[in-house]
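Input record (Table S2, row 442):
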Amino acid sequence: MTPVELSHWPAPFTTSPVNATVQVPGSKSLTNRFLILASLADGQSRLRAPLISRDSALMVEALRTLGAEVTEVAGDGAFGPDLLVTPLDLSVGGDSAIDCGLAGTVMRFVPPLAALRQGRTSFDGDPHARQRPMRTVISALRGLGVDVEDDGDGLLPFTLTGTGSVTGGRLVVDASASSQFVSALLLVGARFTHGLHLEHVGPPVPSLDHIAMTVDVLRGVGVVVDDSVPNQWRVSPGRIRAFDLRIEQDLSNAGPFLAAALVTAGTVRIPNWPEGTSQVGDQWRQILTLLGADVSLAQGTLTVTGGETIRGANLADTSELAPTVAALCALADSPSTLTGIAHLRGHETDRLKALATEINRLGGDVTETADGLTITPAPLHGGVFRTYEDHRMATAGAILGLAIPGVEVENIGTTAKTMPQFPELWADLAATGKPVDSGSGL
Ligand SMILES: O=C(O)C1=C[C@@H](OP(=O)(O)O)[C@@H](O)[C@H](O)C1
Ligand SMILES: C=C(OP(=O)(O)O)C(=O)O
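Output record (shikimate-3-phosphate complex):
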């Protein structure tokens, strides 16, 4: 096979309902938050069943580069080892270079952490990482008194020089391009001398669920956070308690598997669906119901059964769930509009453009709007679905390919950003949709 052929993954296709129980790896957002917190905690911490993927590996490597010790130890997670983290010694300085890859959590969360150390830390990443918004991180660092050398374009690469402490206090930012700007500062704010009083001024902050998750994990490790005033967050100075906890499975990444139930009129079960989670993926329960599925959560297992058709819907603020939602809407029996997701243009790729282009390449009728997509049902056909190094484009292509024969997903390996096991888990799921062989002996 030539490399070109290898780069096109024939998406599994089935004409019969899938019937599967699926477990997915740990949450990217929780793993990378807890890694940051562990590196600043007051003792050794353990992450059980963390995500082991490109984004978490980049975070682990960044923390090691800054001086934290991160070791893999055997655990009971189905997808890899546990992680033991011995925190950074902030009194030890030094110069370092951080590779952010394409990970928003690394490029936004690590700079304020590095600013607490003495020395120069430079940040760079994949070619497309150099197009993701970073201006607010840079201006926030400067607002905190940290020296930053950059090109003035508000993008990677840049270099900061820390003095060994950050005074903190009041800081005003515009976080309208990414909630990660807020999370990044909140995660380390307790270690600023005077804590942090952060205020957002500007168009609305997107992905508010992810900020709620940040506040939730901070409180879980003993940090006092006041988020009672909209667009303001106060983090009291203090210790970050070391922890030993289990990372929930990634509910956003559970999405494509649940979507398979709708696409094939089958049933998909996800056991260990967390109770009272802060993950945005908990919204699948409402979203998939609106799209016409039967959804139930009983004894910790989420069960989704697809109906005869997928219903179109008008959905706001679907955040990182949007590519999966868009794929489902492209297979629906009535039009859909997705709104409140303008900031997806700054994700791994311009997701609004990428989704419209690739679904339309398969015969779809998708229009970009200022803050989302309009998706009108149209008969789809096979073809190459390009993914632009975006894991969620790859999984969206797989969903379409399950329903439409002849879809080839470009670079399925990009799913390693948050779910290296995707191709194999997806093939197992699709195989449950094959007609059951009743056996030759009957
Ligand atoms: O904090 C996080 O873990 C994330 C926040 C969100 O970023 P944006 O606010 O940039 O959408 C989300 O899309 C991303 O996948 C993960
Ligand atoms: C936007 C995403 O990632 P990142 O953490 O790189 O921003 C995502 O995973 O959908």
